[in-house]
């Protein structure tokens, strides 16, 4: 069963008004039917989706060559009156673009996405540009198909994008696991653990300010692979700059008789870094938007970020 046009038109993930959105595929190839469904749903919501010319391209498992993806990336930010540049999916490939982006050519338009897009979000933060860790555009198709609590969670996640785009203050629930319980503050950074670990020590490495709250999530990994990625990422960062680590969902991750929380806690303990979990972001049905690079406060009441 799918949702009616009336139901979907009430959902305004990019805010009110007739807004144009640029759709790009900077990483993995996108199924043609997912693209069509996404564009149809955006139109039903009252938006004007602009699919970049190479978004349907395929080069191995990628959405086109580096040159094709880079051309779309630059062109998307020059689309007149675009409310945002919204990535269609993650996968792999964003790190291939970092060294070729002409940052001086990019107008101030926010980038929206997560998973492999974490590399680009961090690069945007490093250059003082707006970046949202939020559902990719093709997840609209998953919303259309979802039922019951899953539909509600996905709808709330999509709806959360608008307030972050508008620069409003925001809140996420969070549960303390270990480490200091006192309130901490810092700049929100992070994203997909495996992706961020893979670019450690490169030009696309995670940008880390003086005081940071590290947000992490992942999907489909076994615990030993997550531990390997965590060790690599932490070894590339300065622990004294970490105010806390916050875990979102680790969807379909095989942890055996242990847990992600126990593993992360073990590696943070020597540095006396607070660990919180159960934040509603990641590859599950709960994927609330949060602003990369925004100042935030973390306490027993949850995570709260400032307006900008």
UniProtKB/TrEMBL annotation:
Key words of the record = Carboxypeptidase, Hydrolase, Protease, Serine protease
Active site residues according to the UniProt entry:
115, 217, 283
Q: Which residues form the LD-carboxypeptidase N-terminal domain?
A: 21-133
The cross-references to Pfam families, in alphabetical order and at most eight, read:
Peptidase_S66, Peptidase_S66C
Give the similarity note: Belongs to the peptidase S66 family.
User: What PANTHER family does the annotation carry?
Assistant: MURAMOYLTETRAPEPTIDE CARBOXYPEPTIDASE (PTHR30237), MUREIN TETRAPEPTIDE CARBOXYPEPTIDASE (PTHR30237:SF2)
Q: What is the name of the protein in this document?
A: LD-carboxypeptidase
Q: Which organism is it from?
A: Kushneria konosiri
